[in-house]
Amino acid sequence: MAKVLSYLSPQKIESVSSSYNGLIEVIEIFGEKRVLVNSMIQSGGMLEPLWQKALKKVHQLGLNPKKVLILGLGGGTLVKLLNKGFKGLEIVGVEIDPQMIRIGKKYFHLDENKNLKIVKADAIKYVLKKGKLQEKFDLILNDLYLGNQIPPGSESKMFLHNLKKMVSLGGLVVFNRLFYKEHRLKAEKFVKILNKYFKKILLLRAWSNLLVLSFR
Fold it and tell me: Which keywords does this chain's UniProt record carry (predicted)?
């Protein structure tokens, strides 16, 4: 019934408080489930075409990633898009919030993706640890947000240094940044910082976001 009613008005399916993200809501609208964090879309909705634009560019560049790291798994929008666009992937998804992982499994069937390894961890600490071990990924998708804020430490020299070490030669990191009002200046400053770590930067505008493709 909720799915039918969702074509008339958004239907709230679940609402839960998280110590990491605050208020998390699962809603259904036009037959599609979405995850909101403090009223901002975190999975589904406009995030799909946003990330589709990034992955389309990956295709256009002739890249064929086999090992992918998602920082900020959320409800798993990226997992669906990756498996739809590429074959033979090995995906690692890092998510700090157990509520988000539970929601991803319950409503978006994340655990049905046999090529996905879900790691419950602080993504910043994960990168600092794995960077030292030099585990390599062909593609890293950085979607780290707590609500509409960038987590402290995700722009630090140590984090970016280790993140670069985790990218295979010829691979890239895609950063998703908000790009409106006060977020615009922060994103522009961040791009300047990235130029110190990566040999090439490509910018893609996507609605009120900026996708920063950073090549090693």
Answer: Polyamine biosynthesis
Place of tokens 């893609």: 204
Structure tokens at 151: 């987590």
Q: Which residues pair with 205 in a beta bridge?
A: 210
Question: How far is the C-alpha of 149 from the C-alpha of 155, rounded, in Å?
Answer: 12
Alpha helix stretches (DSSP H) within the chain: 2-5, 47-60, 77-85, 98-108, 123-133, 157-165, 182-194
**Model confidence pTM above 0.90:** yes
Smallest CA-to-CA distance from 49 within 169, 200, 207, 188 is with 207
CA-closest candidate to residue 156, choices 114, 125, 201 = 125
Q: Nearest CA to 207 among 180, 181, 188?
A: 180
- For residue 184, which of 199, 203, 160, 157 has the smallest C-alpha distance? 203
Which one-letter amino acid corresponds to residue 179? F
What CATH number does the domain containing 134 carry? 3.40.50.150
Backbone angles phi, psi at 47, to 5 degrees: -65, -30
Q: How many domains would you assign to the chain?
A: 1
- For residue 160, is it within any domain? yes
Residue 54 domain boundaries: 42-215
Task: Please tell me what DSSP assigns to residue 146.
Answer: B
Ranges in the chain, pLDDT < 50: none
Tens digit of pLDDT for each residue in 37-84? 987 877 777 788 899 999 999 999 999 999 999 999 999 999 999 999
